[in-house]
TrEMBL record:
Residues 122-228, 255-358 form the Plastocyanin-like domain. This is Copper-containing nitrite reductase. It comes from Baia soyae. It holds the Pfam family Cu-oxidase_2. The chain crosses the membrane at residues 21-41. PROSITE patterns: TAT (PS51318).
Length: 359
């Protein structure tokens, strides 16, 4: 980049930078996520409507004097995300929306949900805020959970400035698919269908342009439990996503549950021998695949979660957008264990966490 452009151009950030150029130059590793974000988003970018960091202090971001070994390459952050941002990621990890439950005359269970599309700003990395489109105010949206055979009734209110829908993966009538029933701003639509088949599914907006509506944050996990419940375990939901904060068609940050390095800053506590089940969903836009790699262990991999018996044993799974899997494991030894994308670029840009295993 020429010096005159750096000092005076009013072109958008995407004219100069891509995340891959930064990583090839070693800048991403030298600065860490928050440092890179601060360096990437100077004050003049605000006039372009681009997601920005709320800090512009460059004094701690020079490459000299920084330890380039181990975790410092990946996590040389100069501050933490806000408590609200971490709380949102944590809520997505462990909270399930079972709806308002009642019984129908035929004995079936009716579950009623309310979903609201909203335009609101969310923190996607420490100090970096993004103008998202959300379900119920978060990206990902709430994890919808039901049992196979339940009747689901989802009232969708569009409080956004844009037309939206909800498309649920699974089996349902064509007029409940969320592809053609476009809900205009200020309008509502009620989806009603039987929950089937059991497994791990997802939902997302299906309005055009589809890639924009998904990348902006309109998605979530959708779990249908089998009628005979799975074995009781500690259950975690991980929705792999990413954010294009300069709107150039490439992602700047990769996350689980919407916040870069949320579970690196706040490791997930486990006990030795504790059985863990992860519901893993990939909704990453712009990149063909995303992945999950577990350190110091192997897991049973149930693809789509539609079988209770057919699985493979591995420590890494690759998923394209819309793919999902159920992972089950327990740790034999205490210690800190990483989990992260096995695309190193994604890991360096926020998709990394820790399990802290104790006796």
């Amino acid at each position: 980049m020429s010096r005159d452009k750096q000092n005076g151009s009013d072109e958008t950030l995407s004219s100069f930078f891509s995340r891959r150029k930064f990583l090839k130059a070693g800048i991403g590793s030298a600065l860490g996520i928050a440092g890179m974000a601060t360096w990437l988003f100077p004050k003049w970018v605000r006039s372009e409507g681009i997601a920005t960091s709320n800090s512009h202090d460059h004094s701690n971001h020079g490459g000299s004097g920084m330890d380039h070994s181990g975790m410092d390459q990946v996590h040389a952050m100069n501050k933490k995300a806000s408590p609200n941002a971490y709380q949102s990621a944590q809520q997505a990890l462990t909270t399930f929306d079972y709806g308002k439950v009642s019984k129908l005359p035929d004995g079936r269970t009716l579950r009623e949900y309310t979903m609201l599309a909203q335009d609101n700003e969310i923190e996607v990395a420490p100090g970096v805020f993004y103008p998202a489109w959300t379900y119920n105010g978060t990206a990902p949206g709430p994890t919808i959970r039901a049992t196979e055979g339940d009747l689901l009734r989802i009232k969708f209110d569009n409080g956004s400035a844009h037309p939206h829908t909800i498309h649920f993966h699974g089996i349902h009538p064509g007029n409940m698919d969320g592809s053609f029933e476009i809900v205009q701003p200020g309008k509502s639509f009620t989806y009603e269908f039987t929950a089937e088949p059991f497994g791990l599914h997802l939902y997302h907006c299906h309005s055009m342009p589809l890639k924009k509506h998904i990348e902006k944050g309109l998605y979530g996990a959708f779990i249908i439990d089998p009628k005979e419940p799975r074995k009781k375990m500690k259950e975690l939901v991980m929705v792999m996503n990413a954010f294009d904060t300069d709107f150039d068609g490439e992602n700047e940050f990769y996350t689980v549950n919407g916040l870069a390095n949320a579970f690196l800053d706040h490791p997930i506590p486990l006990k030795v021998g504790e059985e863990v089940r992860i519901y893993l969903v990939n909704v990453t836009e712009f990149d063909l695949i995303n992945s999950f790699h577990l350190h110091g262990n192997m897991f049973k991999l149930y693809r789509t979660g539609t079988s209770l018996t057919h699985y493979e044993i591995t420590d890494t799974v690759m998923l394209c957008q819309g793919e999902r899997s159920v992972l089950e494991f327990s740790y034999k030894f205490p210690g800190k264990y990483m989990f992260h994308a096995h695309q190193s670029e994604f890991a360096e840009l926020g998709w990394m966490g820790l399990f802290e295993v104790t006796e």
